[in-house]
Amino acid sequence: MQYMLLIHFEETGEVPSPEEARQMGAPYAAYNEALIKAGALVSGERLQPSATGTVVRVRDGKTEVLDGPFAATKEQLGGFYVIEAPDLDAALNWAARCPSASNGTIEVRPVWPTR
């Protein structure tokens, strides 16, 4: 079964230095490698900051396009993984191993099968 791991974290607006980026990247490289070796990785991407997003809504047949998110939360969606796991417990185990679990939140959701 496929699960999506949604990575939420508090955006500070600060751009990490090249050294900080390398330090943050190393745990993710190891995590990605573990997912690949286990045959669990389907896809995953890091997202640009929420300020770069655009919101689209259709209300009463009219399309509204608005800049930026309007979430009433400190944490924003920063990236995601889609993984294959035999059950929810296995997906939760992968979520706990995600580097962002130590300073953010990993939401685990089953993916509706398309077939």
Automatic annotation (TrEMBL):
Residues of the YCII-related domain: 1-113
Upper classification of the organism: Bacteria, Pseudomonadati, Pseudomonadota, Alphaproteobacteria, Hyphomicrobiales
Species annotation: Aminobacter aganoensis
Coiled-coil ranges from the UniProt annotation: none
Family: Belongs to the YciI family.
Protein name listed in UniProt: YCII-related domain-containing protein
Stretches that traverse the bilayer: none
Organism domain of life: Bacteria
